[in-house]
Amino acid sequence: MKVELPVALSVRVLSLVSLAVAPAACGGSAPAPAAPVASETASPPDPAFDAALQAAIASTERPAAETARDRYRHPRETLEFFGLRADMTVVELWPGSGWYSAILAPLLADKGKLVAATMDPNDPNAHGAKELVARVAAKPSVFGKVDVHVIHPPKDLSLGPDGSADAVLTFRNFHNWMQDGIADGVITAAFRVLKPGGVLGVVEHRAKPDADPAKVFDSGYVPVATVIDIARKAGFVLDARSEINANPLDTKDYPQGVWTLPPALRLGEQDKAKYLAIGESDRMTLRFRKP
Description:
The chain is an alpha/beta fold. It has helices at residues 47-58, 64-67, 70-73, 75-81, 101-108, 129-138, 140-143, 174-180, 183-193, 216-219, 224-234, 272-278, and strands spanning 7-8, 16-17, 86-93, 113-119, 147-151, 165-171, 194-205, 237-242, 283-289.
């Protein structure tokens, strides 16, 4: 099933922190650089893109349940940090039911292309895939140009022709790939589909620096060093990291892991007010480049 969509965003880098090999600090504190890399120079903001981005975020086409998450997910700052432009081809990995897709689709519809790389909607274990496909079909005014690309991991992780994309973005998916043993394969596929100089943007639940990667199965939090190591092994260079999606209130020690916090709230009414006050998880925000 295919719907086509353009993508463009100005390169405005917010809350940029010096790059380092060392993992990011827990909570909201900035990581201590161990092996700095050249920082990126921000380009002048594109007023037209910024206006389009704000309009997409404020669109009444987005359900209230999704806009309620904006204060935790900072879509404007995050997308600007990843440096997207309206003329890009962007692959969104595992878009779930389309939270970010609903913002990206109208931004890319005129000059770029959005590829929503999702799991088989007929697979009962494919979280959000069936909902995404139904949403795309039901809202052609928003998603009419999106290319829905179905993948079948672990045997089929291809994201499109080699060197065909300008950016690959993923939001809160890395822990799932690690649990399924496909993180290396997914990131290698991302590397292959990107053009030289292309961007891999990662937002993920951030574990404490000394966390055991094996505990991802229980907690949903991933060590920053683990993400960086997997990306570098695939050939990526760490370009920048940001604290845009940091949450210093997140103690990362809950009975049901990260899913104890909103929006999952797996404990139901038990201590609900406490977890709502904490908000969504502390998250790393990393930008890699393909040399």
